[in-house]
Design a protein that fits this description.
The complex is a heterodimer of chains A (114) and B (115).
Chain A lengths: L4 E3 L2 E4 L5 E6 L6 E8 L3 E9 L2 E5 L6 E5 L5 E5 L8 E8 L9 E2 L3 E5 L1
Parallel strand pairs in A: 2-11
Antiparallel strand pairs in A: 1-3, 3-8, 4-5, 4-9, 5-6, 7-8, 9-10, 9-11
Chain B lengths: L2 E4 L3 E5 L4 E3 L1 E4 L4 E8 L5 E7 L5 E3 L5 E5 L4 E6 L8 E9 L8 E2 L3 E6 L1
Parallel strand pairs in B: 2-12
Antiparallel strand pairs in B: 1-4, 3-9, 5-6, 5-10, 7-8, 8-9, 10-11, 10-12
Classes of the chains: A mainly beta (114), B mainly beta (115).
Chain lengths: 114, 115
């Protein structure tokens, strides 16, 4: 158990809908990262937050947004969903914001868009 | 930009045999290198990382990797595998000394240990 929790574990929705994925980092960790894992694209970095502020942005679509709240939990919002958004979404956390720090991954949220 | 290539998508190996999972990276600047493991239905877990110093890095569960700058490689090895090592292994790279440049992951290598 990494100490990172993600909810829900599974999510099935329809195209055009909007969903929110939630992540609680390890106790004391200030950075949260979001990743998308799909068969064709592999594991792709989406976005990083550090202590409530956006720190780095990757291949995140404009339909996707995220935020980190004062209690350090984070939410990833996916809107106008398309079939191609079906994937496993991971959250990871680390103590600080440096890339060399160990990232601790949650178990993921599996999203299926029908 | 940095990129990483994992040369084998699947590696079958018998239990107690040695294994090497290959990783090559591309970068014009210094890098940090990582190996993560993903067990079935779980998130990723760090095995080891190279930041600087000794090119031979030892990690958890008996794994080690060697950074070879001239070959731009960071291959992962274990002298004797167990059934429990069956998992997907990801090599990742990041630009060194650049704050929070994100990790770039390879496509993964699925290690299957056969009894």
């Amino acid at each position: 158990d990494s100490g990172v929790t993600q909810t829900p574990k599974h999510l099935i929705t329809a195209t055009g809908q909007r969903v929110t994925l939630r992540c609680s980092p390890r106790s004391g960790d200030l950075s949260v990262y979001w990743y998308q894992q799909s068969l064709d694209q592999g594991l792709q970095f989406l976005i990083q937050y550090y202590n409530g502020e956006e720190r780095a942005k990757g291949n995140i679509l404009e339909r996707f947004s995220a935020q980190q709240f004062p209690d350090l939990h984070s939410e990833l919002n996916l809107s106008s969903l398309e079939l191609g958004d079906s994937a496993l979404y991971f959250c990871a956390s680390s103590a600080e914001q440096e890339v060399w720090e160990t990232q601790y991954f949650g178990p993921g949220t599996r999203l299926l868009v029908l | 930009a940095q990129s990483v290539t994992q040369l084998d998508s699947q590696v079958p190996v018998f239990e107690e045999a040695p294994v090497e999972l290959r990783c090559n990276y591309s970068s014009s600047v210094s890098v940090y290198l990582f190996w993560y493991v993903q067990y079935p239905n779980q998130g990723l877990q760090l095995l080891l990382k190279y930041l600087s110093g000794s090119t031979l890095v030892k990690g958890i569960n008996g794994f080690e990797a060697e950074f070879n700058k001239s070959q731009t490689s960071f291959h992962l090895r274990k002298p004797s595998v167990h059934i429990s090592d069956t998992a997907e292994y990801f090599c990742a790279v990041s630009r060194a000394n650049s704050g929070n440049t994100p990790l770039v992951f390879g496509k993964g290598t699925r290690l299957s240990v056969i009894a």
